Amino acid sequence: MAVYGLLLAGGRSTRMGEDKSEMVFRDGETQAQRGLRLLGEVCDQAYLSLRAGQPHDGQLDVVEDAYGEVGPLGAIASAFSKHPDAAWLVMACDLPHVDADVLEYLLEHRDPEANATCFSSRFDGKVEPLCTIYEPSIAMRVLDSINREQVCPRRVLSQVRVKTMDLPRSEALDNANTRGDAAEAIGRLQNQATEKSLTVRYFAQLREQVGEEAEEVTTSAITPAGLYEELRGRHGFKLKSSSMMLAVNGDFQEWTYQLQAGDEVVFIPPVAGG
Amino acid sequence: MFKISSNPIDTKLLRELTLADQAGGFVCFEGWVRDHHEGKAVLALEYEAWPELGEKEGARIIAEAKANFDVVEVAAVHRVGKLEIGDMAVCIAVSAAHRAAAFDACRYLIDEIKRRVPIWKKEYYQDGSIDWVGCKGCAKH
């Protein structure tokens, strides 16, 4: 059975504020170029998934999303309607740490008898739906979920038989949704991560969730965005960094700030004075 | 002056702080605790603040208002702690030579305070639930 690659590049990148598939993290390649190259290396063929009518370079093999604003599930359903008998290795375009090793590992451990083969998240242990092999046997379930307006790919995967594995590298699927995430990814790819101790102060719902007003943290995160992801996994925070402001050493700061040893960091939950 | 305080707000004092011979108009906005939020009955609420950064940011907002509108004096207080329905949560007092600047500045002040000052609100509802309320525009700082 053929395995085709599908790079998801039809998102609107609202939290990043620019098209994530056009960003460059390494080797001078955009995330779209890099993703298609990697998928092309390990799959029989690589396709780019785009919104209907989204402009693109005419040379590329494109699967247009026929389901409008449904998101990744619509893209996957569109891929299955193009090639119903192939398995699809579906990957998001905002995964700067993915390299051929991760995709090869996924393919080597693929279980074609399962409905999907995927990794579990290093943060919450749940399945990572956007670097996953979807077998043809899941296609009907995907369509059914879209029809029921249940468009969360994680939820679909939780209802079928999946083979789930730990990541070969812990950071492999850390994604870059915001400018802070992007700065974190670039710093780590350039080996700037060093261990440091700093203080995190908590207010409002974060303080309640941690049960402390402050904690000393040893981290190798480069930016507050990376630090927040780490703490989110540890404490189960529900807030996304994109909904919060940030302060370092007593005043507002950008999420792309480079953390220093001894910094005092405050993640500011949505404010509601007045 | 921008203060964060756990005491009831003294509106008379705020008004006095803005009195000036060159002022011809005075506008005051008071924010009160309302008994409902998005269709749910509210029993009480609790404001929490980060006072150091809150007062620093509040002072910046007042400086912006003075730079951008033709006002004479501005004084504002935000209360924190547990509040009952009808209690005053915030009061903003503005004096100006003419009324238009006083109205415009007051509107600017309350909008920016809500959006930028690190103050959080925990609502206690009649149905027993409790929630931290978030302002929609808050991360666009």
UniProtKB/TrEMBL annotation, chain A:
Entries under Gene3D superfamilies matching the protein: 3.10.20.30, Spore Coat Polysaccharide Biosynthesis Protein SpsA, Chain A
InterPro entries listed in its UniProt record:
Beta-grasp_dom_sf, MobA-like_NTP_Trfase, Molybde_CF_guanTrfase, Mopterin_synth/thiamin_S_b, Nucleotide-diphossugar_trans, ThiS/MoaD-like
Write out the GO MF terms. GTP binding; metal ion binding; nucleotidyltransferase activity
Domain MobA-like NTP transferase, chain residue ranges per copy: 5-158
* SUPFAM superfamilies registered for this protein in UniProt: MoaD/ThiS, Nucleotide-diphospho-sugar transferases
Keyword Cytoplasm assigned to the entry: answer is yes
Q: List, alphabetically, the Pfam families matched.
A: NTP_transf_3, ThiS
User: Does Amino-acid biosynthesis appear among the keywords?
Assistant: no
One biological process term in Gene Ontology: Mo-molybdopterin cofactor biosynthetic process
Question: What keywords is this UniProt entry annotated with?
Answer: Cytoplasm, GTP-binding, Magnesium, Metal-binding, Molybdenum cofactor biosynthesis, Nucleotide-binding, Transferase
Matching PANTHER family: MOLYBDENUM COFACTOR GUANYLYLTRANSFERASE (PTHR19136:SF81)
The name this protein goes by in its record: NTP transferase domain-containing protein
Task: State the organism of origin.
Answer: Persicirhabdus sediminis
Q: What does the record give as the organism's lineage?
A: Bacteria, Pseudomonadati, Verrucomicrobiota, Verrucomicrobiia, Verrucomicrobiales
TrEMBL record, chain B:
Recorded hits in SUPFAM superfamilies, A to Z, give: Molybdopterin synthase subunit MoaE (SSF54690)
Per its record, the protein catalyses:
2 [molybdopterin-synthase sulfur-carrier protein]-C-terminal-Gly-aminoethanethioate + cyclic pyranopterin phosphate + H2O = molybdopterin + 2 [molybdopterin-synthase sulfur-carrier protein]-C-terminal Gly-Gly + 2 H(+)
Pathway assignment reads: Cofactor biosynthesis; molybdopterin biosynthesis
Record's protein name: Molybdopterin synthase catalytic subunit
* GO BP, sorted A to Z: Mo-molybdopterin cofactor biosynthetic process
Q: What is its EC number?
A: 2.8.1.12
Please give the subunit comment from the record.
Answer: Heterotetramer of 2 MoaD subunits and 2 MoaE subunits. Also stable as homodimer. The enzyme changes between these two forms during catalysis.
